[in-house]
Amino acid sequence: MGKLDNKVAVVSGAARGQGRSHAVNLAAEGASIIALDICADLEGNTYPLARREDLDETVRLVEKEGVRAHPVVVDVRERSAVWSAIAEGVETLGRLDVVVANAGICAMGKEQTIQSWSDTIDTDLVGVFNLVQASLPHLGEGASVIATGSLAAMLGSATNQGPGGSAYSLAKQVVAQYVNDLSVQLAKKMIRVNAVHPTNVNTDMLHNEGMYKVFRPDLKEPTREDAETAFPAMQAMPVPYIQPQDVSNLVVFLASDDSRYITGSQLRVDAGGFAKAKPWRG
């Protein structure tokens, strides 16, 4: 018996990284999965995004857990497309109980343009709005909405990181407030809304040239090995990053009845990054 038997979850950005991990871990607890991903690059992003074969691999891993998977290639920036994707998934799998608004980009490095701002806001912020709003008509009592935030949301503005970095920080801050305020509205229906805020995570969003340059501005062409000496500066614990599984453990908890009275929360998986950066204000 799994904690999510007979339930259905939608996960955006499901083709790889945190999204794949969340989808597979939810499936391991019995949930069938509507797996969404754009499976294409964005003009304003500074590293390659997932491909259709990545989404197919997520489907394979989900189905290996003995549940159903319904993949949809969709751009979360496109409102009508997201509404159609959710409706199609619900029609196929019969219901919707868990929403994981995870799709995101973080364009960093010298290749940023003003398009980096637009693509980041439209993906990381508008994409969350679109997924959640499209899901609301299908959710009933006991449902759970989970948004992926970031330690960046907790640390404030990042206007010195170029248009992509600045937009990422802003988007995650607004997502945090959106979760807070929406949770009050949905509490009357016994629907929970929470955000998870990871620090550096061992995914392609972290492991790319643009991000390496952020952590090692002293080097012209830093390598992963160079950046990994600086990654631990983000955390209080002496680790360079956490694993997608570390975030998925919290996502599964928030999706299940184990957290039935937790809503409106901003839950950090940050190896002490926030406590290190922000003095206690009791």
Automatic annotation (TrEMBL):
Segments passing through the bilayer: none
Alphabetical list of InterPro entries matching this protein: NAD(P)-bd_dom_sf, SDR_fam, SDR_subfam_1
Pfam families linked to this entry: adh_short_C2 (PF13561)
Family matches, as SUPFAM superfamilies: NAD(P)-binding Rossmann-fold domains
Keyword NAD assigned: yes
Keywords: NAD, Oxidoreductase
Family, per entry: Belongs to the short-chain dehydrogenases/reductases (SDR) family.
The protein's name in its UniProt record: Mycofactocin-coupled SDR family oxidoreductase
Species per Swiss-Prot/TrEMBL record: Nocardia vinacea
